[in-house]
Amino acid sequence: MSARPGGPDSALADVVRTDVPVARGNDRIWDAATRLLLGWRSAMFLLVVLGGWELYVDLGGADPLLLPPPHQIAQSLYNDRSLLWSNFLVTAREIVLGILLAATAALAFAVSLHLSHTLRRAVYPLLVASQTVPIPIVAPLLVLWLGFGILPKLVVIALVCFFPIVVTTLDALAAVDPDLLKLMRTFDASRARTFRHVELPAALPGLFTGMKIAVTFAGIGAVFAEQSGSNSGLGYVFQEAIPQLLTARAYAAVAILSAFAISLFALLTLAERLLLPWAYEPRGEGRR
Amino acid sequence: MPAKGANIAIEAPLQECRDPETPNGVWIRAVDRTFVTRRGEVAALAGMSLHAAPGEIVAVVGPSGCGKSTLLELICGLQQPDAGTVQADPAALMPQRDLLLPWLDATDNAALALRARGTPREQAREAARPWLERFGLAGFERSRPVELSGGMRQRVAFLRTLLAGKPVLALDEPFAALDALTRLEMQGWLASLLAREPRTVVLVTHDVEEAVVLADRVVVMSPRPGRMVAELAVTPRRPRHRTHPEVVALRERALDALGVSS
C-alpha cells in the first residue's frame, strides 16, 4: 500500500476523488454552505429574536446587568474587539486541535472495536460511561494533572467530542452490507483489503456526521477547560467578565463561540459534500 | 476484436483448480444444511445434489426460500455443509443486488476483484478498461454507479465477478431486479458472452424461461428444505431462442416439476 497521501494508490484516492470535477454539484454545494451561513431566513429569524430581546430589556423586563440588550453586546464586540479576537484565536486553536484529536482517536477506536467483537463487548459500556463524566468536575483535576498549557484543554475537548464520533463511525462500519463482505471473500480478499476497499470508505460519512455533532460540544468543553485554569481564551474572558459585571462582554464571548461553531459546522458540511459526493446521492437503483 | 478467448488468460488469469490436471466443475452430493435461528432450526437444504461439469451452464430453479442462495454460498466456500460433500473449483459470486461501491467509478468497481488480490490501482484499471468496452460500457468508464442504468450496473457487477478469474461463476438471480425488457436484453447478452468466455456456471433463477434459454441443464428444487426434484437436459445448441419448440416444451416440463400448471 502506498503511503503517499492522496496519491493515486492510497486508500483515500479511491474515496476522495479530487481529480474528478464535481460537475453540476458545485453550485449546489455553495448553495448549501451559504444557505447555512448567510441564509436570509435564518438572518430574518435572528433579527426577530434580537429585536424581541432588545425590546424586552429596554421596556424593563430584565436588569441590563443580568441580561444585556443586544446593542450593548454589539458595542462590546466592537469596543473589546482586540481582546476578544486574541482570546478567540486561543480558543479556536484549542477547539480545532481538540476535534482533530478526538476524530483521530475515535476513528482508531471505532476501527478496533469493529474488528474485534471481544473488544467491543468489553469496551463499549466504558465508552458510554466516558460521555457521562461530569466535565466541570474533571476539568480542574486535569489541569492540576496536566498543567496550565493547551494539553488539558485538548483532553477535555476530545473527551467531550470522542463519544459521538465513535458511535456514528462504528454504526457506519456496522452498516456495511454483509453480502458485500461475502463477495470480497469469494474474491480472496484478505481482512485488511476488505477493510480498506469496502469498510473504511463506507465509514467516512459516519465520521463526518460524528464530527458535525462534536463541533457543537467542543465549544462547551473548551470553556470549561479554560475556566479551570487558564489566563487566555473566550472561557477565561467570560469568567473574568462576570465578577466585573461586564455581562455584555461575556455575552459577546458567547456570541463569538456560537458563530465559530456554526462556521465549523458549515465548513464540515462543505468538506463532506466535496470529498464524499457519493454519500449525498440516492442509494440503490441507478437512474434510468 | 482478435483472440477474445486468449485475452482472458492475460487479463483475468484463471486460478488453478484444486486439482489442476482435472478440473472438477461443481459436485454437490447429498448435502444437508440447517440454520439455527431464534425461532428454532430451519432446514435450508436436505439431501441436495447437483453436478456441473467444467464449462457447463446449470440453472437452478425453485420456489422462494428453497435454499438456492445457500447452495451458491456452499459452492463459493462461504458456508460448510452439515452433511454430504461439496467439491467445487474456485468460484466467484455474483450477488442478487449489484452491490456496486457508490464511491468508485465503473472501472474501479469492475476491477474490485483485482484490487482485492493486491493489484495496484492503475494496473487494475488498465486490465478492466478493454472489458468495459466489450461490455457496452464505453464512455461510462468514469461514471459512478448512481449515473448508470440498471442494466449497466448489472453488467459492471458481472464484469467484476468475471475479472475475479475463477473457473466457476455462481450467479444469484442476476437479472431479477431488472425490468422485463432490460432482462431480455441482458439474457441475450449473457448468452453471447458465455459463448465467447466459457465458464462453469451455476445460475440460480426464479425465471424458468431464463433457465431453459441460457442453461445446458435445468435443476428443479423442492420447497424448503431444498432438494433436487427434477433435472432437465436442454438439448438444442446454444444460443437458442425462447420460441424454439423444444425450449417451450422444456419450460412447461420445468413448470410442471415446480407444481405450477400453466
Description of the structure:
Chain A has helices at 11-15, 25-38, 40-58, 70-79, 81-115, 117-132, 135-146, 151-174, 178-186, 191-227, 234-241, 247-275. Chain A is mainly α. Chain A has a domain at 94-177 and 206-278. The longest helix of chain A is centred in the C-terminal third of the chain and has 37 residues, at 191-227. Chain A starts with 10 loop residues before the first helix and ends in a 13-residue tail after the last helix. Mean pLDDT of chain A is 83; it is low at 1-24 and 284-288. Chain B has 2 domains: 4-90 and 167-257, 3-Layer(aba) Sandwich (Rossmann fold), CATH 3.40.50.300; 101-165. Chain B is 34% helix and 24% strand. Chain B has helices at residues 4-11, 68-75, 106-110, 112-116, 121-134, 150-162, 180-196, 208-214, 245-257; strands at 26-37, 40-52, 57-61, 83-88, 91-94, 168-172, 200-205, 217-221, 228-233. In chain B, the strands form 2 sheets. Chain B has a 6-stranded mixed beta sheet, with helices on both faces. In chain B, α8 crosses α9 (245-257). Chain B is globular. The A-B interface holds A 8-9, 13-15, 17, 20, 177, 179-180, 182-189, 193-194, 197-198, 201, 276, 278-279, 281-283, 285-288 and B 73, 76-78, 91-93, 95, 97, 99, 101-105, 108, 112-113, 115-118, 120-122, 142, 144-150, 152-153, 164, 166, 170, 177.
**Total number of beta strands of chain A:** 0
Report the major sheet of chain A.
none
Helix/strand/pairing category of chain B:
alpha/beta
Strand/helix succession of chain A: HHHHHHHHHHHH
Uncertain segments of chain A of ≥5 residues (pLDDT<50)? 1-24, 284-288
Ranges of chain B where pLDDT stays below 50 over 5 or more residues in a row are 1-20
CATH topology description of the largest domain in chain B: Rossmann fold
Q: Any idea what the CATH architecture of the largest domain in chain B is?
A: 3-Layer(aba) Sandwich
- Count the domains of chain B: 2
- Overall geometry of chain B: globular
Rg over CA atoms of chain B: 18 Å
Distance between the termini of chain B: 44 Å
End-to-end C-alpha gap of chain A: 37 Å
The proportion of strand residues of chain B reads: 15-25%
* Number of extended strands of chain B: 9
Strand order within the widest beta sheet of chain B: 5-6-7-3-8-9
CATH class of the largest domain in chain B: Alpha Beta
What radius of gyration of chain A results from the CA coordinates? 23 Å
